[in-house]
Amino acid sequence: MTSAHPPFDTRIFQKECKSLAKAGYDVVLVAPHDRDEIVDGVRIRAVPKPRGRVERLTRTAGLVYKAALEENADMYHVQNELELLFWAQLLRLRGSKAVYDMHENLLKSIPTKPWIKPLFRPVVMFACMILERILMHKIPVIYAEHSYIKDYLWVNKHITVLNMPLTSQLLQINETKYSTPTLGYIGGVTAERGSMITLEALNILKEKGYHVNWECIGHSDESHQKELFEIIDGYELKGVQLRGYLLPAEGWRIIARCHIGLAYF
């Protein structure tokens, strides 16, 4: 169950759903998507894509819950969206089994959210801390990193499943490098993940006479994408490719042609 992630998200679809389907389980992924379909043994049940953050937190989350409930599943795997924790608790109270997949440390990520004004971040953090305590009550948690454990000592049932690459697929890639030095990034494209800093760095290199390209692969919202294009035009950067979200196999082949990989922390 997800209200925010694309249906073919690497962790959710490529690793979790496909692995379970290959193991013989009947897997249904409820997610915002254009249509219902079956891909690699996983049945995707689509709900309308949200038109903004408020709709995602309210209407989309409710539609995801309604669709999931109709599946009458043996286990509900709720992805990393706080709004779905409310529905996960309803599932638990109905007698269903639910687990929560924590992709990020929510409380530590709030100070990096540009859409939350700095003045309100302490209040938002406190509210989220209370909500997490209530909504995660008695729900087993899957952590994406070992570091989360120390911040959630009150969670009794948990396991860590690291977001490691699918090496079997990566080792099959054999691509020729670009002729021009090229940076490569694949992941969420946001200011807090370094998109704007990278453009500034590319401009500094350009001013010093170095021509370096950038292959940027990943989803970004429309407002941030517009902001990035304005910076690219302002700096007159010629070698930046903002490719948006690509399926992993396609994205990896492009990254394999790059010379330097970017990892933002």
TrEMBL record:
* Protein name per Swiss-Prot or TrEMBL: Glycosyltransferase subfamily 4-like N-terminal domain-containing protein
**Sorted alphabetically, which Pfam families does this protein's record hold?**
Glyco_trans_4_4
Matching InterPro entries, A to Z?
Glyco_trans_4-like_N
Q: Which Gene3D superfamilies match?
A: Glycogen Phosphorylase B
Instruction: Give the source species.
Output: Syntrophaceticus schinkii
Q: Where is the Glycosyltransferase subfamily 4-like N-terminal domain?
A: 16-123
